[in-house]
Amino acid sequence: MKALALLTTLITGAILLYGTMDFPAFGDPQSPAAIHLSAYFIEEAVHETHVPNLVTAVLGDYRGYDTMFETVVIYCAGLAVVSVLRKKRSKTQENKS
User: Fold this and answer.
1) How many other C-beta atoms are found inside a 10 Å radius of the C-beta of residue 45?
2) Contact call for residues 67 and 73 (beta carbons, < 8 A)
């Protein structure tokens, strides 16, 4: 069973890597996202959304309309990070309080 899981993972990984071969180079200033979207967001996001933080404006306003429940996805990701990074109290610490 482990061999089947490993084989499935390797095949899926190979397909995903093959699919990324058509992507533009990382950080390419001539990529479609850099030419068409980035400049517009940087220039207009704060003015259109009235949110002073550019990242918040893009995630909350633009992506909120783009992707269904994007705000819920970001909230769940934040909860996951908090739950992973929180410090659990030991039973001896709980008894002292």
Assistant:
1) 19
2) yes
Location of structure tokens 């490993």: 6
Q: What is the pLDDT of residues 9-62, one digit of tens each?
A: 999 999 999 999 888 888 888 888 788 878 888 888 888 888 888 888 887 777
The label of the residue with tokens 């783009």 reads 66
HSE-CB for 6 with a 13 A CA cutoff? 3
Q: Say how many Å lie between the first and final Cα of the chain, rounded.
A: 48
Distance CA 9, CA 15 (A): 10
Tokens of 40: 């517009």
Give CA–CA dist 26/24, Å, rounded: 6
pTM for this entry: 0.43
